[in-house]
Amino acid sequence: MGEKLKLGFYWAASCGGCEIAVLDINEKILDVVKIADIVFWPVAIDVKYKDVEAMPDKYIDICFFNGSIRTGEQEHMAKLLRQKSKTLVAFGSCAQEGCIPGLANLHDRKEIFDKVYLESKSIANPKRIVPKTTTEAKEGTLKLPEFYNTVKTLDQTVDVDYYLPGCPPPVKLIATAVDAIANNQLPPKGSVLAPLKSVCDECPRKKDNKKISKIYRVHEKIPEPEKCLLEQGIICMGPATRSGCGAQCLTVDMPCTGCGGPCPNSPEQGAAMMSALASILGLEGETEHYTQEDVDNLMDQIKDPLGTFYMYSLPSSILRRKVMEQ
Amino acid sequence: MKEIVIDPITRLEGHGNVSIFLNNEGEVENAYLKIPELRGFEQFCVGRRAELMPILTTRICGVCPVAHHFAATKALDAAFNVDPPSAAKKLRELMYAGYIIYDHILHFYYLGGPDFIVGPDAPPEKRNILGVIEKAGMDVAKEVIKHRAYGQRITAILGGKATHPVCGLPGGISKPLSEENRQEIEMMAASSLEFAKFTLKIFHDIVLGNPKYVDMIKSDAYTMNTYYMGLVDEHNKVNFYDGKIRVVYPSGGEFLKFEPKDYLTQIGEHVEEWTYSKFPFLKKVGWKGLVYGPDSGVYRVGPLGRLNASDGMATPLAQEEYEVMYKTLGGKPVHGTLAFHWARLIELLYATERALELVRDPEITSTNVRNKPGEPGEGVGVVEAARGTLYHHYVLDKDALIKDVNMIVATTNNYPAICMSIRDAAKGLIHDGKVNQGILNMVEMAFRAYDPCFGCATHFAVGQMPLTVAIYDANRKLVQKLER
User: Fold this and answer.
1) Which terminus of chain A has a smaller tally of CB atoms within 10 A, N or C?
2) ipTM field
3) Who among A107, A122, A135 is closest to B44 (CB)?
4) Nearest-CA residue of chain A relative to B263?
5) What are the C-alpha distances in Å from A240 to residues A133, A265, A268, A316, B475?
6) Which domain covers residue B10, as residue numbers?
């Protein structure tokens, strides 16, 4: 075996769950250390930003990047790590598609600041102070990075080679990716490192290809344990979501909410789910004669369709963000 | 005036940094801990389906998703006016104990503990989990990995996923516990109890056996007399999952005890323009700036906050250790910030004992785990996250969509105190403009003790932070640069 691989890990706007997912590979980390040197990982080892800057271009073999891009600093690090890495992997849902924090694209900076600093119930802010990028304190100048209006994915910022989906990526997918790296068996650039099938294909629940006329929310119905949740009227994102997780949420009788991102042939996850739902939602016994009112009534059962169908993928979708009136 | 910047990774990294300003005599004039990130959950959760809040809000923090999950679930219980069956409450608390086991082990061995086990003056490259393994041995390392994983596994069994669980519903939990899974959890909890005892033994041998460390815990640079807050049960014992919020005076003794739903009458949040984080304070005392003592509304939460705010632990071994701590450190309340580490291990022991009690409770495999929610309204849910009291407050519309959200997140409660701990440690340790590596780590230790998880706003201290320290003269000219 030749020289050890050089790996890097980095986080941008994320919750830390991707870091925990890496720790959750447990003893597998010892295999990683056998084949690779970790040259950059702020959470665990002491390599500084200036060391990264001093690295020759393409010095890092594979860089796993989690988190979305929300500030100028994160954008800078994405660009720097792209330059220093042969292969850049968007690790987890935030980097791949924006994830739940990407729902912030329904608002802009002003709306978020107003809510957080001026309108929240516990706020005691009579002077209506809001954070600023530059503050002159009596001892000197204090700076904060600029908070952007829009959450961006990693590939909206720099060129990305691979995607490791999930929130966080399932341990099994991380382990498979590590093996592929170790054995030099990575698929073509641009691939998503996950099975081609949907969550439904991994789900053991029974399907009867039944139509539904009533939609239930999870707190409104105790589902039968063996049967498909969607066919019991509970919106489950399984048909539109990429597998690899082992349908974990379904094991505790809860629906998939879509964190695995889109399936390979339907990159617009929200549209794919709406299409799947349209094919099974209908009036009992009725096959073709729907009035506009019938359709409206059926559709009105779906509360917050945007937050439901685009819960993880709004920034990467064709919708991208809400257009704000100036 | 000179400025020292302690910046995790660099100024450009963006997960929190400290600026220390020196005056012309080279003494510390002031220090600022800036939180440079914000995500705005309070805004973008508006309009979402209420029942999704336990799933949406886990993404505030991937280190403590279980805390957000159940604060949200309890807020929904209240908002839908439904009381879960007893078995559901016990299952939630069991999963919660699993989370505390995982999280407190993570902090002691991976994050804060290295300062003590390897030593605060040890070279930076040794002051990490690998240094701990070197000092404690590979067998210990395997036990650490195993038991941290057990904590995660308990959450995965009950919650579907360890990171970002999904089982919480208004009125209960999505699935009962099978006997097979119960046995697995019992085995893991029993093993974790032994491991918690072993961990406390390490702490006694290495930390308390060294007078230098004990002096450091008691030293002025790490002492701050503040109010303390934590959830307590009906006997005023520490409880992570449920109870009333109790606040004690800096001098000890009960100052407040209130129901979660009344938190707005007791807590306010101040805003400064130099940081994205807010500054919570006790309304009855008022916001007086970054000062402490009985006239300042600043309070502390987390392991030491909980132990100070309670009258003891609800399980026997943890109670014994609780008594040892207060005896050793000179009575209640303990103001030494570094005592957070000891308090954390007492809580680890409690969590393992409590997990065993719950998993051996005959009711734990009951299939009655859901009650029917009522009409949507307004609700507050409070739990003790590993890092402190966590408040979720939702207002629902008639379609049970979210109309308003307010949250006071665990670490945010401690933010004013962390700012002061850093400032005071810097003042106590930096003189005549002299700064070296050991001193900088000791300043850093002041906030690592809190296990600050700004993942709940950002997440700058999930690990050992590389430090860059730049010292500027009065003209902002770089005169010295220290790095590690």
Assistant:
1) C
2) 0.95
3) A107
4) A122
5) 41, 10, 9, 15, 59
6) 2-37+431-483
Final residue in a domain of this structure, among B301, B319, B335: B335
Q: Is the pLDDT of residue A1 over 80?
A: no
Tokens of B407: 């949250």
Domain finish residue from B318, B335, B352 = B335
* pLDDT tens-digit series, residues A107-138: 999 999 999 999 999 999 999 999 999 998 88
Residue B465's pLDDT is what? 39
CATH number for the region A5-100+151-182 comes to 3.40.50.700
Contacts of residue A44 in chain B, CB cutoff 8 Å? 128-129, 463-464
pLDDT tens per residue across span B218-268: 888 788 999 999 999 999 999 999 999 999 999 999 999 999 999 999 999
- Helix residue ranges, H only, chain A: 17-23, 28-35, 49-54, 72-84, 93-97, 109-113, 171-182, 199-202, 248-251, 269-280, 292-300, 305-309
Query: How far apart are the two ends of chain B, measured CA to CA in Å?
Result: 24
Of residues B480 and B31, more confidence is placed in B31
Q: Collect all residues of chain B within an 8 Å Cβ-Cβ radius of residue A18.
A: 62
Q: What does the alpha-carbon distance between residue B166 and residue A252 come to, in Å, rounded to a whole number?
A: 8
The number of distinct structural domains making up chain B is: 2
| Residue among B159, B166, B466 minimizing CB distance to A42 | B466
**Choice among A74-83, A134-143, A278-287, B325-334 with the minimum mean pLDDT:** A278-287
* Residue A309 pLDDT greater than 50, yes or no: yes
Q: In this complex, is the C-beta atom of B98 within 8 Å of any C-beta atom belonging to chain A?
A: no
